[in-house]
């Protein structure tokens, strides 16, 4: 029972943290309205947010192994709160300031995944990590969903939409500070209680090649880790569409308003919640995870192409996003669960921090690419996202040597 309560609190922290940041997504275009190439400015803001994580994620992951998971939870909660406060001026500078501050402190996922692995039995790890991955994806959807409920329920007039969502984000991020304070430490077998060597730890976080070499070294004793991380990187390249979707539906042929965007994400969130709950509660333990990766990636490629071809039809958009929930949306949870099986008690924070850093490199790269492609055509980025899923079609072959670990 105690374990379930701790898991629920961890899941709640993840969900609330993401919702606090994503609730303002529907109004991001308003911060750069009137500028030349607003789609490029939005992409630059995303690149700033992701780029800073290249350095901070490994640092925070290392801190969580030495000082515990809770300090990292507190750092990220306070960071999200401050970043939302910076949005109050409602201009382009506020937008970029928010992206920078949030990026500097957004290292919670290494600590989260380490905490879940700390308290999960091996037989439950894939399910628990899968649920965490699903909650991460759900949070990006639930933020705009809550925004739509607020705008609809309180009948907010157009000129009050932006400030209403900003102050709601501030309030939600304050709640997450409290939740993080209530979190009880899960790192019982600490690797070292010596003071953190901040200088060397930060310098090490800058050496991304050394991170990859570390994964290669660990792969020798845990065969399959390297290939799993490579597949994770490819998946993250494809998931760049999460950061692009609002730009696409607001500035493209659909020309959706903030309220229409919020209503769309209401539908997205409800369908995704139902699908993910059924899949991770009743199906994931009965299916072969690598085969799921292959089939979901194949249909996911079709889904990305579908996004590119919807034109100005909202009916087509709603149809494609339903297919999205059944395929792409479930992939992050599966990948996190597989990676979790390669970690051990004394290096979970390190491994998940490295994975988050490498994933941030992928996110940064895909943001630059879809930002450049969007200037040429708003449809082009979705073809890029589809191509990025191709390596996952070979997941079964790449992980076959470690099949016993994968399906145990």
Give a verbal description of the structure:
- The protein is mainly α.
- It has a single domain (2-185, 207-407), classed as MFS general substrate transporter like domains (Growth Hormone, Chain: A, Up-down Bundle), CATH 1.20.1250.20.
- 77% of the residues lie in helices and 0% in strands.
- It is built from 20 helices and no strands.
- The chain has helices spanning 2-22, 28-31, 38-66, 69-85, 92-104, 108-119, 122-153, 161-182, 198-205, 208-221, 225-238, 241-251, 258-283, 289-308, 314-326, 331-340, 348-376, 380-388, 395-398, 403-407.
- Helix 1 packs parallel to helix 4, helix 3 packs antiparallel against helix 17 and helix 14 runs antiparallel to helix 15.
- The model is unreliable at 403-408 (pLDDT under 50).
Strand content: under 5%
CATH names the topology as: Growth Hormone, Chain: A
Number of helices: 20
The parts where pLDDT drops under 50 for at least 5 residues are: 403-408
User: Helical residue percent?
Assistant: over 70%
Compute the number of strand runs: 0
What's the Cα radius of gyration? 20 Å
Provide the CATH top-level class: Mainly Alpha
CATH architecture: Up-down Bundle
- What's the CATH H-level homologous superfamily? MFS general substrate transporter like domains
Query: What does the largest sheet look like?
Result: none
Overall 3D geometry?
Answer: globular
Q: Could you give the order of the helices and strands? A: HHHHHHHHHHHHHHHHHHHH
What class would the helix/strand composition place it in? mainly alpha
Q: What is the number of independent domains?
A: 1
> What does the average pLDDT come to?
84
Roughly how many Å apart are the termini?
A: 24 Å
């Amino acid at each position: 029972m105690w374990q379930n309560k701790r898991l629920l609190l961890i899941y709640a922290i993840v969900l609330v943290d993401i919702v606090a940041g994503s609730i303002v997504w529907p109004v991001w275009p308003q911060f750069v309205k009137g500028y030349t190439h607003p789609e490029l400015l939005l992409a630059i803001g995303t690149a700033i947010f992701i780029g800073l994580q290249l350095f901070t994620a490994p640092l925070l992951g290392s801190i969580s192994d030495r000082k515990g998971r809770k300090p990292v939870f507190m750092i990220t909660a306070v960071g999200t709160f401050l970043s939302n406060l910076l949005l109050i001026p409602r201009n382009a500078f506020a937008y970029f300031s928010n992206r920078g501050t949030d990026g500097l402190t957004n290292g919670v996922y290494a600590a989260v995944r380490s905490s879940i692995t700390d308290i999960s039995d091996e037989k439950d790890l894939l399910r628990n990590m899968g649920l965490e991955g699903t909650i991460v994806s759900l949070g990006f959807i639930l933020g705009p969903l809550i925004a739509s409920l607020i705008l609809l329920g309180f009948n907010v007039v157009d000129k009050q939409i932006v400030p209403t969502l900003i102050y709601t984000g501030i309030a939600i991020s304050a709640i997450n500070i409290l939740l993080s304070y209530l979190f009880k430490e899960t790192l019982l077998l600490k690797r070292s209680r010596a003071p953190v060597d901040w200088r060397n730890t930060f310098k090490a976080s800058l050496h991304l090649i050394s991170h990859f070499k570390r994964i290669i070294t660990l792969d020798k004793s845990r065969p399959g880790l390297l290939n799993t991380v490579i597949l994770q990187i490819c998946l993250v390249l494809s998931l760049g569409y999460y950061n692009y979707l609002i730009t696409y539906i607001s500035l493209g042929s659909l020309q959706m308003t903030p309220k229409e965007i919020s209503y769309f994400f209401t539908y997205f969130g409800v369908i995704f919640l139902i699908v993910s709950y059924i899949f991770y509660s009743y199906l994931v333990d009965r299916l072969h995870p690598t085969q799921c990766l292959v089939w979901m990636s194949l249909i996911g490629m079709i889904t990305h192409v579908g996004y590119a071809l919807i034109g100005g039809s909202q009916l087509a958009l709603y149809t494609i996003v339903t297919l999205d929930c059944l395929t792409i949306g479930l992939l992050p949870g599966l990948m996190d669960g597989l990676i979790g099986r390669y970690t051990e008690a004394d290096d979970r924070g390190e491994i998940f921090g490295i994975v988050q850093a490498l994933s941030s490199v992928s996110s940064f790269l895909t943001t630059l690419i879809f930002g450049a492609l969007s200037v040429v055509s708003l449809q082009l980025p979705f073809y890029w996202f589809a191509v990025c899923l191709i390596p996952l079609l070979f997941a079964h072959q790449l992980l076959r040597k470690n099949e016993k670990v994968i399906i145990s």
